[in-house]
Structure formats: structure tokens, C-alpha cells
Amino acid sequence: MQWLDAVIQGVLLGGMYAQYALGMALMFGVMRIVNIAHGDVMILLSLIAVSLAGVLPFGNLGLIVVIVPIAVVIGWILQKFILNKVVGADPLPSLIATFGLSIALQNFMLEIWSADTRSLPNSDIASASFQIGSIYVGLLPVIVLITALVLTGGLDAVLRFSRFGRGLRAAAADTEAAAMTGVDPKRIYAIATAIAVGILGLAAVFAALRATVSPSDGSAQLIYAFEAVIIGGMGSVWGAFLGAMVLGVAQAIGLRIDPGLGILFGHLVFLAVLATRPEGIMARKK
Amino acid sequence: MTSKTHHTEVVRATRSSRIAMTLCLALLLALIAMPWWASSGNIRWAIELSCYIAIAQMWNLLAGYAGLVSVGQQAFIGVSGYLLFVLAQNFGVNPFVAVLLSLIAPAILAVPTYLLLRRLDGPYFAIGTWVVAEAVRLATSNIDYVNAGAGLTLRVMTQYSQHEREVGFVLLCALLLLTTIGGSYWLLRSRIGLALTAMRDNPVAAASQGVNVGRLRFYIFIAAAVGTGFAGAIYYMAQLRITPSAGFDPFWGSMSIFIVMVGGIGAIEGVLIGALIYFLADRLFGEFGSAYLIVLGLLTLVIALYARGGVWGLMQKWGDHAWFPVRRKLIVEDTP
């Protein structure tokens, strides 16, 4: 029973990781860029949410309505002033630029919010839970998981069926050929980054509701998102979702074996997937 | 008809390189003589600076030539540091000998790391190295034999007098600089250097000219791991203490990226300039803590966006005065 409990908690934790991973999969899929400040941007949005919660009398749902547009704007700025200048075949400029941004952001947050851990004020949703058999399940983690599921399905549908999705897939396959057929890559990139960071805005509010955040947490979130994307298989949105589940379960099981082993187990599963199935468990057939 | 004979000659040294070489040798001798003329505080600084230069040059070799961007070099610093402490403290090996023996650890770790991560695309490779470093750090924090998260202390160093220790350290530092900087220079001037430079400029074109890009990258990754580990072992031996959070600190990655990018990537001169800038900035502004790091981060960002050659790249615009020239100049003279 305790293992079934671990698996369930792991899947619920995976819902959180899926929200981090979706944006990364999208941005890498279209621009071949990894934003090293991905996790730090998420933490920044969480801290903004925590600070706003003290001022605005909206409740948590209202907070999401405010934070997501802020996230979209941050994504647009990120694209316009940094990422557009470093998109290219050479991975070095984008890595170094976002690495520098990550260091600057982390320390900027330390200056503003200090190193304390913070979270959103306890609400009914965050503490509510229900019982299935002998296992307790928190209501908030279930909402997070369902949100992740809806986001993944929605993003997949957008990529498959919308005009933007076709343009994005075309730009990802061959930027120049896509540009010749009337797709504006810069526009596609801007929308992709705005969506990716917008999803982070949602994740940021959930993360601050679920647990605590502090300025230095960003790197860990970046690594979890990355592991989920690779475990699931590059280039697939559902792959990132499934990878997040596998990562969550691996961490939850490791945690049950020894409290010091949770995160290490996640890393080991990532390395094992890389060794045995480097194309990921849900890779597209070639 | 008189036939002319041509006298041809390949010139590799320049006036600036002769000056630089003389200066480097003089500095190296001054470093070795430090225990007889400098204070212990200054010797500690020299050890630190030597380690920074070595670690940054190894990162430069990876990112600047092999096209392998790593943000997880701290894995190799930690493992060689730990092996040194275990050998010296638990097995009674002479610590100065143990430094050299401990280089086996980064070499062994680098092989599976590269073989696994080479399957990842450019930017994903970088974050993969970070995961490996984190995994090794967490594993170390869970091994009771090395005192888990509490770390190890190098008590055996008390058997040496202060002077003996300092002599040992400056000799190790000189060897470190000779192998990492001198070794890189030698490598870049050799046949492999031609292949590396070709690979830096365009890996696909280099492969089409017969460079085995995959194998070369593999060797460079291992060599960089060993060089980085060498510096790490010396650094933590001087600190007399190592913990998982210090030995595997991602700060080591940030530092090498900062030094190489600000100084100038793809040039040994850049590493020396960057290391000096970083070392001085750390002494002058380190007390400002996070504000100082914001500036470092933004500086790295701006350089990646607008001045990818760094300070050395800007200096070269004023004239070609390479300190470590790797080019060959063919001189043809007619002899009557």
C-alpha cells in the first residue's frame, strides 16, 4: 500500500513538473534553444504572486488572472531583447546569454525578496484533501495534475490543428523554407516563448500554493523540466507530460526508501533512460 | 635562363609571442620562488588564481574549440578532491603524491558521462552535464564512508611545516599551469590543434576534411575533466576541507563561464585576461554579494549578445599581437 501511495503522490508531483516542462519542450522544439533561466523566471513569477497576494484582494483564482499576463509580457521581452539575438545553429550564445540572465535574476531576487522561503497564504484548496481507500489525496495536487493534462492536450491540439501550429512545425523543421512559404519565424518564436512563459505563470502560482519558494530554487526546477523533456522524448508535448510523471514517481519512490534519495532517484532514472532509450520513451518514429 | 632557388621557411613565433613567452617563464619562476619572498597570504592568492586559470582554460578548450558547452565541470572538481582526501587521510598516501593519483577519478567519471551525454543535442548536452554533477553531489552526500553531507578534513597536512607545505603547493601550481596552459598551447600548435581550430570554425566542414570530430571531442572532454580535477584537488588541499556542497558547487561552472566569456573565448590570452579581471573584481567588489553577482551575470549576458570575442577580441581589433600564436606563416625568399 505504501508503494501505491508513493506512485500516486509521484504522479501528482509529476503534474507540477509537467507544467515546467511543457514550455521548455515547446521552445526547444521550435528554436533549438534552452533557456537556462527557465526555472528562475518561474520563481520570479511565484515571488511576484506572493507579494501581490498581500496587496490584491482577489483570491488565488484572481491571482492567476493577473500573473499569467505578466508572464506573457516577460516572455515577449525575453524573446525580443535576448533570444531573437541568439537563435542559431551554434548553441553557445543562447546558453551563455541565458546563463548570465539566470545568475543576474537569482541575485536580483535575493536583493528584493531576501533568501527567505515564502509561499502563498494557506487557503481552503491548498489544505483540502479526500480519501480513496486508505490513501489521502490532496485536492490542490489533483487540480495541478488536471491543469497539466488540459494544458498538454490544448497545446498538442494547437500544434496539430491551428495555423500557428502549422507555422511552428514548419519553422521547426526548416526555418528558411518556412520563411519562403510566408511563415514569419520571428513571430512564431515570439508566440512560442509567450505561451511557454505564460504556462510558467500558471505553474508559478501553483508552486507557491503547494510549497515554499525561495530565490535560489530556480536551478532545480530547470533540471526537473529538462529531465522530464528528455525522459519523455524530445519534440513531443505528450512526451514531456509522460516524462514528468515518470520523474515524479521516481522521486516519490526514492523518497520513501530514504529521505536523502528522492531527487537522486530522479537523476538516476534520467541517466538510465539516456543509457537504454536515448530517444525517450515517447519519441516520434522516424 | 637562370633558375631561381626559393628559400622557404615557416615562421611561428612573433615578437609579441617571444615577449609573452619570456614573461610567462619569469612569472612561473617567480611563482616557484614564492615561499622565499612572499607572505603566506599572497601564496594563498597565487594558488587560487592558478586554479581559476586552469579550470577556465579547460572550459575554454571544451566550449571554445570542441563545441561542448558544459555547466557541470564541478563534478570533476569534486570527485578528484574527494579521492585526494580519502587517499591521504584514510590510506596514508603522501598528500602531494595523492594529488596526482586522484586524477584517475575525473578520468574515470568523464568516460561514461561523455558516452551518455553525447546523445543529447547541443544545449541539452550542457544541462545534462549539470544533472551528472548534481547526481554525483547527491550520491556523495549519501555515502557515510566520506562522512556524507558533513565532508572531510585533511588532518594529515599538520605533519608538514608551513614552509614545506608552501613549497609543495607552489610546485603543484606550477605543474598545473604547465599542463593546462602550456599543454593547451602545445596541443593547439600541433596537428591536433589544426583539427581543433577547424572544428571550432565549422564541425561539419572539419569532418569532411578528415577530422574525426566525435573521437576528438571525446578525448578533449576527458582531458578537460582531468585538468579541471587537477585544479580542484589542489584547491581543496589548500582549503584543508571539502564538503559535497562546496566541492560540487555550480559556482565553479559560473566562474569558468564568466572568465572565458569576459576574457575572450577560443584564445588562451582570453583566459588569462578573464581570470585576472575576475580575481581582481572578486577582491574589490566581492563584499557587495548579490549586487556584484547581478553585474557579473548581466556582463556575461551583454557579452554573449554583443561582443562574443570578449576583451581579447576587442584588443585584437587594434592590432595582431598574439601572446600565444598558433598560426603558421610561410615566408618565401628568392635566393640568387
Automatic annotation (TrEMBL), chain A:
GO terms for molecular function: transmembrane transporter activity. The keyword Membrane applies. It is a multi-pass membrane protein. One of its GO terms (cellular component) is plasma membrane. Keywords: Amino-acid transport, Cell membrane, Membrane, Transmembrane, Transmembrane helix, Transport. GO terms for biological process: amino acid transport. The chain crosses the membrane at residues 6-29, 41-58, 95-115, 135-159, 188-209, 221-247, 259-276. Its main location: membrane. It is found in: Cell membrane. Belongs to the binding-protein-dependent transport system permease family. LivHM subfamily. This is Branched-chain amino acid transport system permease protein. It comes from Celeribacter baekdonensis.
TrEMBL record, chain B:
CDD domains: TM_PBP1_LivM_like. It comes from the Bacteria. GO terms for molecular function: branched-chain amino acid transmembrane transporter activity. InterPro entries: ABC_transp_permease (IPR001851), LivM-like (IPR043428). Keywords: Cell membrane, Membrane, Transmembrane, Transmembrane helix. It holds the Pfam family BPD_transp_2. The chain crosses the membrane at residues 20-39, 75-91, 97-117, 167-188, 218-238, 250-278, 290-307. The keyword Phosphoprotein does not apply. GO terms for cellular component: plasma membrane. Its main location: membrane. PANTHER family: ABC TRANSPORTER ATP-BINDING PROTEIN, HIGH-AFFINITY BRANCHED-CHAIN AMINO ACID TRANSPORT SYSTEM PERMEASE. This is Branched-chain amino acid transport system permease protein.
